[in-house]
């Protein structure tokens, strides 16, 4: 299938450099060798120009590293990059990885490139990298969106109020984008270019050991990175637990979640590939499929819309809507029956054993079910000395322990706790008219069974 025109952005509209030695692809968000529109576009252009294709990745660590990333995140990332390297080289695409920023490696290798291709992400740091590259590249520069189903600006030209306002816009056009992507054939080998990597990512554990980073949050055993692992998990999920997704998706103990979010966050699987697989699944009915597509497309792309159109999406004053900030301020001095320090929250030392279990699952395994994430966040607001501090704590804990932390979904979900994409509800202490979530919400699932599940999961990480 052709790559949809809506995915393609020309950032520097000049002819490819005539003396260029290769087509360069900055593989930074879409860390995979298959079902990757940016890679397939680069391969198409390489064939057209009679040139090999080089993919590159810039690895940051130390003080210049990706904000808030730690050993847990880097281990998963490196496992995925080892998989991507193997897949790229098997296809005849060279892979170059160096210890420098994505912008720096791209600008360095672009000096010999006829054409430069970027993939796309919507976070502020990614926009900054793309801006640096756009300012410094003097040949043709093209950006291809491959990590949402419908590109953000195609879906909507403004910040959407809620899922109900974005949903019909996506539904009207998503069939054009939920299409297969056939792998292109690489026609010119890259082996003779003589480009060297500073990092041999075939041994991700060795690379991780040599990095300067926060090791207080260790890697997890529950999840391993890589596109092969992502596809294997998806295949097993669709053959079994997916059959009950429509009825069980809000029950954390039921095992109905697909656990695709870390793989989506690191670009190790395409959301379009997931959507196609869900539609084709033998298990599950129309309700299950519709509910899953709602989550992987509408809800996920609402988060992309939020961070793209909100400058300061990680700040309480910018991310939380005015009505919610106002009502929270009116109740900021309300007595808190209980407050906890951030350390107590991180260690799960509260009076609420179900909240503590959810925190333990996140802290030890890097994951928490979405239903519990909502309860977890609302309680941090209730137990913090102020709304602003609650917001900051929630975001810090979220980004520190979740494998899919530091993601548009993370920033959006935390802001939702404080009123984003929601409406005023009945007024109550501390929350004002921001939605409250009580312990009664735990009655919707078998909370005691969930406790046992968490105990087993944490024991497996020990």
TrEMBL record:
Catalytic activity entry: cyclobutadipyrimidine (in DNA) = 2 pyrimidine residues (in DNA)
GO terms (BP aspect): photoreactive repair
GO molecular function per UniProt: deoxyribodipyrimidine photo-lyase activity; DNA binding
Keyword set includes Cytoplasm: no
Domain Photolyase/cryptochrome alpha/beta: 21-152
InterPro entries: Crypto/Photolyase_FAD-like_sf, Crypto/Photolyase_N_sf, DNA_photolyase_N, Photolyase_Class-2, Rossmann-like_a/b/a_fold
Record EC number: 4.1.99.3
Family: Belongs to the DNA photolyase class-2 family.
Name of the molecule in the record: Deoxyribodipyrimidine photo-lyase
Claim: Mitochondrion is one of the keywords in the record: no
Key words of the record: DNA damage, DNA repair, DNA-binding, FAD, Flavoprotein, Lyase
Top-level class of the enzyme under EC nomenclature: lyase
Pfam family, one: DNA_photolyase
Needed co-factor(s): (6R)-5,10-methylene-5,6,7,8-tetrahydrofolate; FAD
